[in-house]
Sequence to fold (152 residues):
Amino acid sequence: MDKQTGKNLQCLQCNTSFYAPNWWIKTGAKYCSRQCYWKNKHDEPWNKGTKGLIKPNSGNFIKIGINFEGTLEEYKSLHYRIGMMLGKPSSCQNCGKSGLKGKLIHWANISGEYKEIKEDWIRLCVKCHFEFDNQEKRRAKNAGILFQPTIN
Fold:
């Protein structure tokens, strides 16, 4: 019979004594089972102590449009209604990149007033949308040169 190598440890969750082989100790054995590990790791909610709105699994706070007055749900609902009303074109109206879908193409608000009319929205790829939304910063940097999307 082989001689066991390892030692008895105390579980951090349930204080039960358990045997851990050397290879397990090297990887950081602290719990007697997976159940104890997960129970110890997930005692508190993942977002305890955070302020603001956090999108699960993103790790990022959600920033609602600068001029939008309302809740996150209203903001999402507006974009959903715009998508239903105007459809889902697959090409950017500024640079002409085509074959885009899902998160690679966005409905961008032109006026900043978030009106539910066709003339107030433009379909942009992620890059053009980022440039369009940051035109105020770019205006100061480039002394008046603005990003002007070409509306077809």
Summary: Strands lie at 6-10, 17-21, 105-109, 121-125. The CA atoms of residues 86 and 118 lie 7 Å apart.
